[in-house]
Design goal:
mainly alpha, 2 strands, two-stranded antiparallel ribbon, 2% strand, globular
Length: 392
Amino acid sequence: MSAPDPAGSPSVGADSNGLHRIDQLQSLRGLASLTVVLHHCSLTYQSPDSFRYSMLVFNAHAAVIVFFVLSGYVLQLSLMRGAASLRNALAFLVRRAFRILPVVMIVTTVWLALAPLVRLESTPGTSIWFAGMAPRQGLSGWQLLLCALGLSNALIPPVWTITVELFGSVFMPAFDRVGRWGWQVLWIVTALLAGLAIAHARMGSDSLSAVQNFGPIDYLVYFCAGAALCRTPRSGWRAPLWSLAVLAIGLCGVRVVLIGLRTGHVQFIEYMYGYWLAALAEGVFAVGLIYALTTSGAAGRALSGRALTCLGDISYSVYLLHFPVLTASVWLLGRLAPWNALDPVARTLGLAVIVVATTLFLAGLSYRFIERLGIRAGKAFLERRRLVAVQA
């Protein structure tokens, strides 16, 4: 079966590195990365419950689900432009490695040198959640190597999603192969993966109402869903703006609703981070939102502005850098008596401003001097070995 036009109404352009890009989806990726930053800032200090609950609109887990579905969509868009061959699959994986690993390796190395200087135990007013996210000490050489390769989050906790991205990337050529049998087949595979993820999450549980969490392997379903969505033909229907608002609200709020119904209180939301039912519901809303964005002309234009697409360009570095920046900022600010005299809400808001501004600045440098160089190095590596340059 010939592949349908995956983008439908949105225009598929190319960035400065020659990679295919849909502007509104790039902007969505940037907004998702910023959501994660603000979420982590909101949890850092021991703030009043009323304030913390108001910050739940910054649903970091939903933002991560959006990352995975977007990756599946965009990577499938790249793969389907070439033949389904082993040569192209290898070229894709090489480019993906050069895209992901340079930033992880450099950030991990720099943070490894700086982390021992950051003494969080002497920082007043931080939350239990933040204390639990402190970098682990005494890591072995093997553990440090895994951290540098994006395969362990022992040093930088959010790196667990990079592990999932690498794992998902390995499976993308297989999803592309299956998708060539028909877009419907990919949706069937997505449903099967969802069933396996639920079974794995609930393994060992006898109670239908037991709370079980997704593990890294279970997030593979979102890459497959993104690939299936990319191949699904567009009917010409354009999503109205109100549908985008409904989907965005559902994406942000479904976790609070489901965990509230399950436990009677949303104070457990961080302890149920990977709650399987909430994770699957967020996946449904994420797929719906991305579909709507690729069929809504008005929303596409609104999210195609220069500022938002630039945020999307640096979103990977924003995500990877924000936690070391957050941790270092908390430690430095905690040494200032006037800062410690502020109430928790004021400290949280001030911290958010400092962390966002610093992270955006460093991410811009990282994108220019590390990410783009890595992409070019991957392209040069493939050209020297005369492999087909599949976009990744």
